[in-house]
Automatic annotation (TrEMBL):
The keyword Transmembrane applies. This is NAD(P)(+)--arginine ADP-ribosyltransferase. Its EC number is 2.4.2.31. It comes from the Eukaryota. The chain crosses the membrane at residues 181-202. GO terms for molecular function: NAD+-protein-arginine ADP-ribosyltransferase activity; nucleotidyltransferase activity. Keywords: Glycosyltransferase, Membrane, NAD, NADP, Nucleotidyltransferase, Transferase, Transmembrane, Transmembrane helix. Belongs to the Arg-specific ADP-ribosyltransferase family. It holds the Pfam family ART.
Length: 650
């Protein structure tokens, strides 16, 4: 359509066009994003997947599909070709256009693309997915010295060791199938394809940008959990053979093995996942939960039992769960004691603490004949070369939960598979994981802490999509971080940051009563800074200042805190600075200060006092882009961070 015309007829107009290109070159480059262009003809035959094409015209595009619904443009009927364009150097001309309400993006002549895929969701509608590439040679000379037609962070990639794009890892798959997503998300994909026909917004995949802030390659110190740092994630804990959220009921999520309370009454309080509840067993009368039918276990059966428990009494003797006769997880004087037969047991070494949520798991792997118990994702004890001691017929037995237990139970999951230790650690210590692509409000971690957003845009990110913050009130907010409200609980946050047009605060952790952490970029020098209010023994705030952040380049930033190593600030998985004075956290005061925390990206408008960050006002909103946000309920290790920045998309 654009590459097969006689351009020699334009020669008399070259000087005029140069003036036009000069003006456009002086406009700031729009963020990397998906834009749309529609034509009332079928051009699909001219764009076979895999071909490389060049558009030589000034191409007007829009960031909103709803604009194309107008009969002035593409409309909703007739033969149409819709181009979904991943662009890296478009120019935003809204401020200079007659159409002041439209986010119009103009592509320059000589824009070079690769055709990624085609779909035809209706007989008269053809959708072509184009991804802009750096051309093999200069197609459009800069109109003046210093003109930046392609952002430096993009063109600079040509001089660096080549990193495969995610789509190159498997060219046999179309662009819309390359994300590893759960089956429930696949249904959403089908809805989105249908929505194209209705003119709704279609989510698109984005390409990986080479990280540019470090010239060294750190040596890996651990690979634990690294398989889940590549954009994939384990199934949520609710994907199980039986799952008990205890949200005011003892029923199984799947209604196959509902529980019945035996003994005294039970009550419910706010749970570890605070949008739901947890069951309270106080043993004023002997109380337990009985479940039938039991599972038909054999000597070859695998299983994983995991959940969150809070003890209200020390040195407790209780049955946390009995899966079958002689197959149970107990507490003996407050220590975990697992039985997998009449004469086979696994005994822990730690007396469980009270008043804190603990993730407890019990895994049996029949193939390896190994049984393991863990606390907060850390192996407490393991036993090898053991077989399940199973009676011939155990389906008539009763699953028992909480006999003699005094405390709270939440998110109890029973799976007839043997989860690996990295999955157990993920379930125990990943408070949330936001991919920020596709359905960007979804939490891909184990707890389902979905977010909300205001005035944010999706653009090409470090891995597929990212969120762009270019308005003063732009924000992304997720509630319910119980672990971060727990006094002196180790925690970490890690994310990709792309500084663009303005420094400012890009992450805040707070509840309505107290502020825990602020991350931002200083006005002077664009240095990364982390601020912890009331973090010393005397109640002073602590600022940890890191290096200067590059403009328009993705850099990985992480902050960790623990009571043993205190505050650490990392960039590109390298330790940038340590806050040795940050010996405490603002949540240590208890009460409302220990309420579940909210993580805010962008503009913070909460009621807590977060003032004190050095070199920038807490109300000054960062304008740039963020991607791949991890929130850990533990101190992330340097090896975790190294895996995050070195693992490419799959």
């Amino acid at each position: 359509m654009y590459s097969k015309v006689d351009r020699t007829k334009l020669r008399p107009w070259f000087r005029y066009l140069k003036l036009f290109v000069t003006a456009l070159a002086k406009l700031p480059v729009a963020p990397r994003q998906t834009v749309w262009r529609g034509v009332r003809k079928d051009h699909s035959a001219e764009y076979p997947p895999g071909d490389e094409v060049t558009w030589w015209a000034f191409s007007s595009c829009t960031t909103s599909l709803s604009v194309l619904e107008s009969d002035l443009y593409l409309g909703n009927t007739g033969t149409r070709t819709l181009f979904s364009v991943e662009t890296i150097n478009g120019r935003t001309i809204r401020a200079h256009s007659h159409f002041v309400t439209e986010d119009e993006i103009l592509l320059l002549p000589g824009t070079y693309f690769q055709v990624k895929s085609q779909i035809s969701p209706a007989p008269d509608l053809h959708i072509v997915h184009l991804q802009q590439k750096i051309p093999p040679h200069v197609l459009l000379e800069p109109p003046f010295e210093g003109a930046e037609l392609i952002p430096f962070s993009e063109s600079d990639r040509l001089s660096r060791p080549r990193i495969k794009e995610p789509e190159e890892l498997d060219d046999s798959r179309p662009w819309y199938t390359k994300k590893r997503i759960l089956s429930v998300i696949a249904a959403v994909v089908a809805l989105i394809i249908l929505a194209i026909i209705l003119g709704s917004v279609l989510g698109t995949q984005k390409k990986h940008t080479a990280q540019t802030t470090s010239t060294s390659t750190p040596t890996l110190t651990t690979t634990f959990s690294s398989i889940y740092y590549n954009g994939s994630a384990p199934d949520p804990v609710s994907v199980a053979d039986a799952f008990y959220a205890f949200d005011g009921t003892t029923n199984d999520l799947y209604s196959l093995r509902n529980g019945a309370v035996a003994g005294g009454p039970v009550s419910y309080i706010q749970g570890y996942v605070p949008y739901g509840q947890a069951i309270v067993l106080n043993q004023s009368n002997t109380t337990q939960i009985n479940i039938q039918p039991a599972f038909n276990l054999t000597t070859n059966s695998n299983f994983t039992i995991e959940g969150f428990f809070m003890l209200q009494k020390t040195q407790l003797n209780a049955t946390l769960i009995q899966l079958a006769p002689n197959i149970m997880l107990n507490l003996v004087n407050g220590v975990l004691f697992a039985s997998i037969g009449l004469n086979t047991s696994i005994v822990g070494t730690s007396v469980l603490s009270t008043q804190n949520w603990l993730h407890i798991s019990f895994v049996y792997y029949a193939t390896k004949q190994t049984a393991t118990i863990s606390i907060d994702g850390i192996v407490e004890a393991t036993n090898s070369s053991v077989k399940l001691g199973i009676s011939a017929n155990n389906t008539n037995s009763v699953i028992i939960i909480g006999a003699g237990f005094q405390g709270y139970i939440d998110q109890l999951s029973i799976s007839l598979i043997a989860k690996t230790q990295d999955v157990i650690q993920w379930d125990a210590t990943i408070a949330a994981y936001y991919r920020l692509d596709f359905q960007w409000t979804l939490d891909s971690g184990p707890n389902g802490l979905n977010a909300s957003g205001v005035d944010v845009n999706t653009i090409f990110g470090w891995r597929y999509d990212a969120l762009n913050f270019n308005a003063s009130d732009a924000s992304f907010q997720a509630n319910g971080f119980t672990a971060l409200g727990t006094p002196q609980q180790a925690f970490s946050v890690a994310l990709w940051v792309r500084a663009e047009t303005r420094s400012g605060v890009f992450l805040t952790v707070a509840n309505p009563y107290t502020c825990l952490l602020v991350l931002g970029l200083q006005n002077d020098g664009n240095k990364i800074v982390a601020y912890l209010p009331n973090a010393t023994a005397t109640g002073a705030g602590v600022n940890i200042v890191g290096p200067q952040m590059p403009i328009n380049a993705w850099t990985h930033v992480a902050f960790t805190w623990s009571s043993t190593n205190f505050a650490k600030l990392y960039t590109s998985a390298l330790l940038a600075n340590v806050g040795v004075d940050a010996t405490t956290l603002n949540n240590v005061r208890g009460g409302n200060n220990s309420a579940p925390m909210t993580v805010t990206l962008g503009n913070y408008s909460g009621s807590a006092n977060c003032q004190g960050i050095q070199g920038v006002n807490v109300s000054q909103t960062f304008m740039g882009s963020l991607d791949e946000v991890f929130v850990f309920a533990r101190e992330a290790q340097q090896g975790d961070l190294q895996q995050i920045i070195q693992t490419l998309p799959s």
